[in-house]
Amino acid sequence: MSETTIQVPVEHVEAIRQGLVAGREASGGREEIDGLLGQIAQGPSADGESCELTGSREILWSAVYDSLCVAAEQLTDDCNEYWRGVVDPQSARAGVVTVATRLELLIGLGAPPVV
To answer: Which residues face 3 on adjacent strands?
Structure first.
C-alpha cells in the first residue's frame, strides 16, 4: 500500500475520525487505523487550522469517501428541510461547502483505489 499525507481542515477532522472508526470495524487494517486515530488525537498541525494525517492512501481514501457520503446525505436532508421551509438557506449552503471541501480532499488523494 502506498503512503500519503493529507491536511484535513480542523472542522472536518471529527468526520474523518468517524470514517476511520467505521473502517476499523469493517477491515483488517486495525493497527494502521489505530495509528491514524493516534495522529488525530495529537491535535491540529502547527498551522492550527488543519490536522496532518499520514497513512496508506487506500485507508485515507476510504475514510474521506465515507465522510463525503455522510455530508452528501446531510445536504440532501437540509435541502429537503429548506424546501419544506423548516430551515433557512444558510444551513443548506453550509452543507454545500462541507461536501465541496471533502470532495477536494478526496480528489487530492487521487483516483479510487482498486478493490
So the answer is: 56
Q: What is the C-alpha separation between 60 and 22, in angstroms, rounded?
A: 12
Condensed to tens digits (0 to 9), the pLDDT of residues 17-73 reads 999 998 887 766 788 899 999 999 887 777 778 899 999 999 999 999 999 999 999
Q: Does residue 115 fall inside a structural domain?
A: no
**Residues ≥6 apart with Cβ < 8 Å to 65:** 19, 106, 112
- Rounded-to-10 torsion of CA 114, 103, 96, 70: 40
Instruction: Work out the burial of residue 22: count CB atoms within 10 Å of its CB; fewer than 13 is exposed, 13-18 middle, 19 or more buried.
Output: middle
Range of the domain at 32: 3-108
Which residues are CB-contacts of 88 (< 8 A; sequence separation ≥ 6)? 82
In the numeric block, which cell numbers belong to residue 57? Answer: 492512501
**b (16+ CB within 10 A) / e for 54-83:** ebbbbbbbbbbbbbbebbeebbeebbeebe
Does 17 reside within a domain? yes
